[in-house]
Specification:
This protein has helices at about 10-25, 35-45, 60-70, 85-90, 105-120, 155-170, 175-185, 195-205, and strands at about 1-5, 25-30, 50-55, 75-80, 100, 130-135, 135-140, 145-150, 150-155, 175, 215-220, 225. It has two domains: about 1-120, Response regulator (Rossmann fold); about 130-225, Winged helix-like DNA-binding domain superfamily/Winged helix DNA-binding domain (Arc Repressor Mutant, subunit A, Orthogonal Bundle). Helices cover about 40% and strands about 25% of the residues. Helix 2 (about 35-45) packs parallel to helix 3 (about 60-70) and helix 6 (about 155-170) packs across helix 7. The structure holds calcium ion. Calcium ion binds near residues 9, 10, 53 and 56.
């Protein structure tokens, strides 16, 4: 599992980050104080990315960053900054950190930064060209199979084709016509409703909560979007 240290003293922010990291396929290691963070680092030498809050009850995030960096030059470090005034400070002290995210941040923004840093520090094993990995999902285009968190999800060929189209276009709104043309082919004279029926079935298979879908979201009056 891809371990990420989450150092944040505010429990509500910490759990928000943790939930979103888990959802994106990471294994968050939590710490509420600077000392605790350094201890978690010693216990988990395989942590590849660390998120460090700056204002903490004991030692500040910059000091934690400096201490981690002193023994580990490879780890990716992202500072979580509270206010824009801290930006100068961050820039000045960026020596040890690789990136920073300003609060409040969206889960998508944070995950995108972590994904990018993870790739840069080489934490990701080489992804074979026949695999598409998006968050907890892995699509194998050779076997035409889908896994979520390592567990196989059985799909029909049509559902597989829809998933492939989504995972090839993360974050992009796809119209129902596009989906119909790509998956069923331009010669198919069916109704758009067949798209909705298949999406509904797909949601039951892949969503954590199919009544409140977060992976396949509806773009009202247009179609659907893959992204989280
Ligand atoms: Ca804080």
């Amino acid at each position: 599992m891809k371990k990420v240290l989450v150092l944040e003293d505010e429990a509500s922010i910490r759990s928000f980050v943790v939930i979103n990291l888990k959802r994106s396929g990471y294994d968050p290691i939590e710490a509420a104080t600077g000392e605790e963070a350094l201890e978690r680092m010693r216990e988990n030498p395989d942590i590849k990315v660390a998120l460090l809050d700056i204002m903490l009850p004991d030692i500040d995030g910059f000091e934690v960053c400096r201490q981690i960096r002193a023994t580990n030059s490879k780890i990716g470090i992202i500072m979580l900054t509270a206010r824009t005034q801290e930006m100068d400070k961050v820039t000045g002290l960026m020596t040890g950190a690789d990136d920073y995210v300003t609060k409040p941040f969206s889960p998508a923004e944070l995950t995108a930064r972590i994904d990018a840093l993870y790739r840069r520090v080489g934490g990701d094993e080489e992804v074979p060209s026949f695999e598409i990995v998006n968050g907890p999902f892995k699509l194998n285009t050779r076997n035409r199979t889908l896994e979520k968190n390592g567990e196989r999800i059985r799909l029909t060929q049509v559902e597989y084709s829809i998933m492939k189209m989504f995972m090839d276009n993360p974050g992009r709104a796809l119209s129902r016509e596009d989906i119909l043309n790509t998956v069923w082919g331009r010669d198919y004279f069916g109704e758009l409703k067949v798209v909705d029926v298949n999406i509904r079935r797909l949601r039951i298979k892949i969503e954590d909560d199919p009544t409140n879908p977060t992976y396949i979201t509806t773009v009202w009056g247009y179609g659907y979007k893959w992204g989280f």
